[in-house]
Predict the structure of Coenzyme A biosynthesis bifunctional protein CoaBC.
Amino acid sequence: RALAGAPRDLAGRRVVVSAGGTREPIDPVRFIGNRSSGIQGYALAKVAAARGAEVVLVAANTALPDPAGVRVERVGSALEMREAVLKAAASADAVVMAAAVADFRPVTSATSKIKKKDADDVPRIELVQNPDILAELVGRRAPGQVIAGFAAETDDVLAHGRAKLARKGCDLLVVNQVGEDLTFGAPDNAGVVLSASGREREIPRGTKEALASVVWDEITSLLT
Ligand code: CTP
Ligand code: CA
């Protein structure tokens, strides 16, 4: 079982998990968001806590209750997530980026609600790229710190995953297939854990907690 009777092999470890989808403000009432439910990230936090870790969960938008025994820091946008994650990561043994961080944000957020005008006068939202938090974590990684990412892909899952792992420079990348009814908001998940060492471990479809357990197994094997 992922939770009850879990090994206490993360006792004395500090870990950071990010979860949920960021919201990039357009104006005070609107945002650009994504379909991440946060369930996988919350499962990672719960399982780590059950295995004895001190957990900081940096949560972007989710509809989930705070897991017991976990410090939850709520954030909205990718920039807020970056600040919270980098701060918490400074003293962490492991960081797992399970959040769906928006790749782009509106250049500016209007200070008052954008109003409708004539049908041919439609606002254009100019976007700018958000910082890559995972890449920044890798860039400032402390010796021995283990860093893992997630990659949701719709096609060529393994090929995209391998290329992404190499590009990001993290220790582990969990890849899974998304789309239609797969993964988003669902209680179950499946995937492959790709390691920088070349190791590839397939995780059969099961609960998101079961997948989280395998991810922590892989992380634990890298912790010194
Ligand atoms: N990530 C991040 N900061 C970003 C974007 C992504 O930290 N600005 C992290 C995610 O949390 C995830 C990993 O990077 O752990 C991979 O995210 P993904 O969106 O699959 O990768 P991208 O590099 O953004 O590539 P893509 O063009 O496929 O979206
Ligand atoms: Ca992305």
Summary: The mean pLDDT is 94. Residues 103 surround calcium ion (ligand 2) (CB under 6 Å).
